[in-house]
Amino acid sequence: MSKESWQRNALAVSGFGLFSQSCALSAVVLVPPAIGAALGVDRAQLQWIGDTFLLTVGSLILMAGSLVDRLGPKRVFFWGSLLFGLGGLLSALSQSRPELIAARAVQGLGSAGLVPAGLGMVARAYSDGPSRGLAVGTWIASAGLSLVVGPLGAGALVTAYGWPSAFFALADLGLIGAVAVAALPDMPGSLDLPFDIAGQILIATALFTTIALLIGTGNRMDWSQALYALGAGAVLGGAFLMTERLVAHSLLPSDILRSLRYLLPVSLLCALFISVDGFDLYNALFLQQIQGRSALAVATLLLAAAVPVILLSPQSGLLVGRMARYISVAGGFVCVAGGLKMLSTAGPAASGICLELAYLLIGSGLGLANSPLLITLAITAVPVAGAGIASGVAQAASLAGGVCGIGLTGAVTASWAESWLRQHAAEGSFTGSMLKEAAGGSITSGPPPRLIAEAFTHGLHAAYSGAVLLAAIAAAVAAGAALRERNRFQSETTGPANVGYALPQGELAP
Fold this sequence. Notes:
By secondary structure, the protein is mostly helical. Helix content is 79%, strand content 0%. Helix 4 (73-93) packs antiparallel against helix 8 (164-182), helix 9 (197-220) packs antiparallel against helix 10 (223-246) and helix 19 runs parallel beside helix 20 (449-492). The longest helix is centred in the C-terminal third of the chain and has 44 residues, at 449-492. The chain is globular and about 65 Å long. It starts with a helix and ends in an 18-residue tail after the last helix.
């Protein structure tokens, strides 16, 4: 196999892995209402179906990154794809909520290895800056494609054949990925690398505990739960860092955690997912439960967010080694903030055109400041040999941010919905069932539908406003990084700076 063929095939397989994982997230957003009707579960229980997947991936992503460096990306991708497909099959065959949650955990176990292994293949196949930038742009576009194929496919399948069909489709994706990567040449890792067992256990426990408690924040509408999550995370994270200082060969190289070149894109990545992941889930609830749209109608409406991601992602990938990359990230956060601000004023009767304009802004923001771009900016700050663990840390930050965003969105929505109901419900008519339905945007029986819809919408507006503030702060940080790059570029070159110029060799991060 020629080098060019190997590069194309490795890029195609790695992109398919990112596409599969993204579909597992974007497609399943539309499935919970159908599952709730079929299995008889409420919003809090439904949230665990999606969160279990994130919880498993987030807890094991660092271990998966370490395994990529030790075993090689091909082996990790192969077994990850098989487990991903098996989890999809078990999910489709589930007959109860516990079975479905366990199956989603199996799928998350396999998915944990797909992105680190995919990035490992891209890092090995494309070594120079320009070709890697183009490869990253193509890789990123596969995630954007999933925002079209995932929701549309899931919406059509759920409408025509019921909710299990969406999981059968995910099982097919896992099988295809395993077959495709098996045809690639071997990509051996370095088995001589020491395996930090204590560090692996501690970081997995820290991530699992923190993320699980954050999920509970949204489900139980208890703000003290968020404090417990942060406290538990701080204690276990501190124990992990102390252990890493004592072992000879630590899981995380110490220079990674001290490098602004690495920590800046990772921090922005976490902020991006805090801002938008709560939108993904609760916007779908708003459209289906409050506005009464079908899963297919919601997927069609969300095309306004998906199309700009596909169009802009490849262009942002070309900026990996260029000064304009943080200008792109800052502009992306501005667009996200603008779209969420529009949604924070959209009521139950909001028209499809108004919603599509907001989704268009959010999609444009995700295309300019997208997670694969930020992950790639992070791994350019470390040697290729450590790309697996570096990408694992970055993705763990994104997943933790996503779960945090979902949990906080749920908690804010429920808290503000309760406050609104207590003020507007008739004397003596306020009940626990009314609060429960308002917190989940569920209109069934009992309380007046108008009150439930308005309470849920009021709470959701408050959550969106908080996300707008976070996105605005992240935009300011990214703009500061862009200004810093511009000043450094001017000091190292003669003549006026041009954002289209490539950065000097070896300077791929701020």
